[in-house]
Amino acid sequence: MRKVILITGSSRRRVGFHLARHLIDSGYQVVLHGRxxxxxxxxxxxxxxxxxxxxxxxxxxxxxVAELVARIVKRFGQIDGLVTLASVWKPxxxxxxxxxxxxxxxxxxxxxxxxxxxxxxxxxxxxxxxGAIVTVGDWAVDRPYPExxxxxxxxxxxxxxxxxxxxxxxxxNENIRVNCIHPGNILFPDELSPEHxxxxxxxxxxxxxxxxxxxxxxxxxxxxxxxVTGTSIKIDSGxxxx
Length: 242
What we know:
alpha/beta; 45% helix
C-alpha cells in the first residue's frame, strides 16, 4: 500500500509541484492542495498522473481543514505525511504596515500550519503506523531583511510549534514525528530580476541556489527517518552564515 502525503500550498508550478513529482518518483501517493489556483492545481495533478490528486481548502478555516482531512481519509484510508507549504509572502514597508496585513500573514503562515498539523496529526494518532509532519519555516527568521515583519512574525514561531507538536503527538502515538525545514533560495520567484539573482548568489557560500531538489531530499529524509523528531534544519546553502 502506498503512503499518502498531503502537500499544502501546492497549486502552482512552484516548490510544491517539484516536491510532489519527487515523492511520486519515490513511490508515494500525493495530494496537492490550494485555495486560489484551483484550476491550475487540478491541471498539475492531472499532469503528474494517477499518483496525484488535488483538494481545495482554506487552511485558516478549522472546519475546512477537518473536511479536507476527512476527504483524503475517505479516499485513501489514511494520511502518512504532511508538508505545510501554504504561505503568504508579501513585502510591506514598516510605515505602511497595518494590523490587517499582519493578521492575514499570521493566519495563513502560523495558524494554517498548526491547524493542518493538528487535524492531520489527530488522524495519524488513529493509525498504528503514525506518520510524519514537516513544517516549513524560513532561513531568514534569524536574519530578517526589511519590509517583511508580518511574514517573519508568522514564520518565527513555527520552530517552537514544531517542537510542541512533536511532544504532544508522540505522547498520543509514538510513531508520529514532527520536524521543520527552514529553506533558503530553493526556487527564485519568477519576477526576480537577473541582477537580484546574481546578488543573492554572490551572498551564498555554497553555489547552489534556485534548485528545489535538495529541499525535496530533506523532506524525504524527514518522512522516512523514524528516529528524528522535534528538530529543524536549514536548507539555505549557508546563506544564513554569510
